[in-house]
Specification:
Elements lengths: L4 E7 L18 H8 L2 E3 L2 E2 L5 H10 L3 H4 L15 H7 L3 E6 L24 E4 L12 H8 L7 E3 L2 E6 L7 H15 L7 E6 L11 H8 L20 H8 L1 H4 L9 H31 L6 E7 L19 H4 E2 L1 E4 L7 E3 L3 E2 L3 H8 L14 H4 L11 E6 L11 E6 L3 E6 L4 E6 L17 H16 L13
Parallel strand pairs: 1-8, 1-9, 2-12, 3-13, 4-5, 4-8
Antiparallel strand pairs: 2-11, 3-10, 6-7, 9-11, 14-15, 15-16, 16-17
Length: 478
């Protein structure tokens, strides 16, 4: 029997509460909502870093950022790390990608052509680091626009300096990603060779620039959009990084922050949600093509994101050296009709578990050095899914905006508490998630929380110890 195909849809910077199936009554995401009903839907899934490259390197290899050594944006993943796409290609899969990959620097000043190819296994690599035209024709998306007589252009919104009107839907990067995916799916329909196709849309990553017709429904009810959570959080108990970023994102280099007006906060949230709606529309088009090609019943479909977006919560936008749930909790669902049991799972899940899960799903041996745990037995219903006891995340100077001194932080999250340690400042955060789900009241210095703090610090050291690289494999006793 032919092994299952894999359609892997990964958005960029999409937090978990951006879907109707996650309880958001504002967004319009019927296609992803329908997929969630037919999938194993992990509602408490967390990334291993709140930043693109460390997170992607982790879930693509099944190893933690510290282990892969891809700890920062702007690095290249070491050549001895093996992404799951390479393992599948070596096992006979035909692999394709459209959009972002980001395991190497995405900057024309470093790579003159496209993102440097690593040992990725992709037979087709239809790349665009982001939608902007700073890549020239080296970006496949830019070439797509040029073929249509278009150039990438956004227009500042007259009512908000933080929002732009983006490319029309027909010329949007998400549309281009969907069209490339549909073409690939249709071309592979008659092949006996199993395939993997990675759809890496840039949306809803900032800048916040949806097509005008996607934004307008939100503008019609702008006053109904809630302001960010904990917008006036007491910064005196927070880290220096948060104090800086509340004044301006990315270490004060961008204007997003708590000084924005209420209207600005609502406008940005409206634009972000509109971009999520566009993603949903394109996911629907891809899944429709998969159905029409007759391949749905033998295709694993994954929908997820690489990390979240603060979106004004705690007065912070974008991402940085902090581990609030909006930054690290993401959508994650996986389906295979007739095989994976449709079910909502509430247990704690790490995306580092995805690569070993796919190997087992495809009948392949687990790779030595992988630190994630396969979810496959639970997806089949053979074992109950209890979830992990804790979530572990890392931020090792992951972006260049918070390195005075270097931002080195780790986090442990259980179902009831969250602990963050800022190793450069001898500082931390402790939250009781049962009584304080928005993570406002920092109990780090609370004398009544010393016992919980000690237990969590011990648990954090245990998790850190097990990020030690299991490679090379022991060959003999001596």
């Amino acid at each position: 029997m032919k092994p299952p195909n894999i359609l892997w849809i990964c958005t960029d910077q999409q937090r978990s509460d951006t879907l109707g199936c996650a309880g958001n009554s504002f967004v319009s995401t019927p296609n992803i909502d329908a997929l969630s009903c037919a999938a194993a839907n992990f509602r408490n899934c967390f990334v291993q870093s709140p930043v693109c490259m460390p997170s992607r390197g982790s879930f693509l290899t099944g190893r933690y950022p510290r282990t892969t050594r891809l700890r920062q944006n702007g690095q290249t993943i070491p050549s001895d790390e093996t992404p799951i796409s390479r393992l599948l290609a070596d096992a006979g899969y035909y692999c394709g990608l459209v959009g972002k990959f980001h395991l190497a620097p995405a900057d024309p000043a470093v790579n003159e052509t496209i993102e440097k190819r690593v040992n990725d296994g992709y037979d087709e690599f239809c790349w665009a680091g982001d939608p902007h035209d700073n890549w020239g024709t080296n970006s496949s998306y830019t070439a797509f626009l040029e073929d249509l007589g278009q150039t990438f252009k956004t227009t500042p919104h007259p009512d908000c300096e933080f929002v732009e009107t983006g490319m029309p839907e027909a010329f949007h990067e998400a549309t281009w990603c969907a069209e490339q995916a549909i073409d690939f799916i249709e071309r592979r329909a008659e092949s006996e060779m199993p395939w993997l196709f990675s759809v890496n849309m840039f949306a809803p990553h900032h800048p916040f620039n949806p097509p005008a017709d996607y934004l307008q429904p939100y503008l019609d009810r702008l006053d109904e959009i809630p302001l960010p959570d904990a917008l006036s959080d007491d910064l005196s108990t927070k880290s220096p990084h948060q104090i800086t970023d509340a004044k301006g994102a990315y270490g004060g280099t961008m204007a997003y922050g708590r000084t924005m007006s209420d209207k600005d906060h609502r406008m940005v949230k409206a634009a972000y949600w509109a971009m999520c709606d566009l993603v949903d529309m394109k996911v629907g088009a891809i899944l429709s093509a998969l159905d029409l090609s007759g391949q749905r019943d033998n295709t694993i479909v994954i929908f997820m994101s690489d990390h979240g977006e603060m979106l004004g919560d705690h007065g912070i936008y974008l991402k940085g050296p902090y581990f609030y749930d909006p930054a690290i909790r993401v959508p994650f669902m996986i389906s295979l009709p007739g095989t994976i049991q449709p079910k909502t799972h509430d247990g704690l899940t790490e995306l580092v578990d995805l690569a070993p899960t796919l190997l087992e799903a495809c009948g392949l041996p687990l790779q030595a050095g992988m630190q994630g745990k396969s979810l496959w037995p639970s997806l089949l219903g053979k074992t109950a899914y209890e979830g992990r006891e804790s979530i572990y995340c890392e931020y090792y100077n992951a972006m260049p905006f918070h390195n005075n001194p270097t931002a080195q932080l780790t986090m442990l999250r259980t179902s009831t508490h969250k602990l963050v340690v800022d190793h450069a400042h001898n500082y931390g955060e402790l939250y009781d998630l049962d009584t304080d789900p928005n993570e406002v009241n920092n109990l780090w210095d609370d004398p009544n929380s010393l016992g919980v703090k000690a237990d969590l610090l011990t648990a954090l050291t245990h998790r850190m110890a097990f990020t030690a690289d299991p490679l090379p494999v022991r060959q003999c006793e001596w």
